[in-house]
Amino acid sequence: MKIAMHEITTRDGSFDDHLKAYAESGWKHFEINLWKAGETIQRDGAAPVARRVRDAGLTCVGATGHAFKTFGSAEERQRDLDAIRQAGETMQALGCSALVVGGGGPPDQDKSKHGEYLERHAEHLRAAADTGRPFGVSLCVEVNWTGLCKSFRTARKLVELAAHPNVGLVWDPAHFVSTPSRVEDLADCRGRFKHAHLNDIREVCWEVMNINADRVIPGEGVLPLRTWTDAVSAAGYDGWHCLELFNETLWANDLASICRKTMEGCKRVWPEAVF
Known about the structure:
By secondary structure, the chain is of the alpha/beta class.
């Protein structure tokens, strides 16, 4: 099991504060939040930022993210491609390839046209993947954030329709438990997972679960995480699982405490984990 820190988990502080906290607490790998780090990258440039990452002894293993406007105007779709190109330049400098992506559905949400909408979104993903290919970018579709995909079964179909080697799926326990997905669906996604997030969910009735706010440190919730991550591994994924938490109680701590508490929790579930 390989576990990395997601910048969203250390929401507050600057990008450089994050690097310092990760390095000092033993987190060697992280996923960059392009929205959070964007101002720093725009101000200083991708190459200098990448040097600071390397100088801190850290490795960036993925990036979040971009929301596609497939059903918007031609100008919005072009801006999608421009954004992928810009993200690709940053990710190439950082040496990472996995870009987590989402995007809303059409305004009318006509259920009878769902298959048609999937095909249109797949076509746009394919164009975006071609744009990101020179930079080594792989687009990683996130269930739920991609409005047309409310299950891993449908997300797999979208990836199949895109039919591009640089389009795949993101594994995420919170998105798995909150959708009509089944463990059997993971085997059907074999070879499709290109990235993974990690989280647990506090004990709560699923009917009122908040998919973000109810996330907790692995081991503090009720999800059968080892069983599920073993199934994802059996489906061919051997990459990094980036700890992505939206937890106000956790965020109330200083960065050093967040890094320490999250690593301790992960080690209790996966004593063998690499960080």
